[in-house]
Write a structure and sequence with these properties.
The chain is α+β, with helices and mostly antiparallel strands. Strands 1-2-3 form a three-stranded mixed sheet, covered by helices on one side. The relative contact order is 0.09.
Length: 144
């Protein structure tokens, strides 16, 4: 049997699986809504915003930080109007802050803490040979 008989277009293969059909439909709708939302937002904010859910007249957007969420919330009324003009009626927009996942390969590295200033000054006093400089360092140590 030729190899081409076994190959099916992706959409055809997915169309034969009922649960994948609903997933694909939802994915396409979310992608289309994400594009519409992004066209109405400032570019730097738009790149970080995506539609993650739509239920009961509520559109849920996901953003990576609180600052981006604030800008998106300010544009919510315009977004609702833009979506309504395309036939999608939403009562509200919920903005969910979802910080990006940390790279698992980056292990928690130990934070190197500097010693207290007094300890640094004591060490410096021992290394200095000039008596006048030692006196100045002692004065500084009294302030710490």
């Amino acid at each position: 049997m030729p190899l081409s008989d076994h190959l099916k277009p992706f959409d055809t293969a997915l169309a034969q699986e009922a649960h994948l059909v609903s997933w694909l439909r939802r994915y396409r709708l979310e992608t289309m809504l994400t594009d519409t939302v992004r066209r109405r937002l400032p570019r730097l904010v738009a790149e970080q915003t995506r539609v993650t859910d739509l239920r009961n007249g509520q559109l849920k957007l996901s953003v990576p930080s609180g600052a981006v969420a604030t800008v998106v919330k300010q544009h919510a009324p315009d977004l609702i109007k833009a979506l309504a003009s395309q036939g999608y009626e939403f009562k509200s927009i919920l903005v969910h802050v979802q910080p990006p996942r940390r790279n698992k390969s980056a292990k928690n590295t130990e934070i190197k803490r500097m010693p207290p200033p007094r300890a640094l000054l004591c060490e410096l006093e021992r290394k200095v040979s000039s008596e006048r400089l030692k006196q100045a360092i002692r004065k500084l140590m009294k302030r710490c």
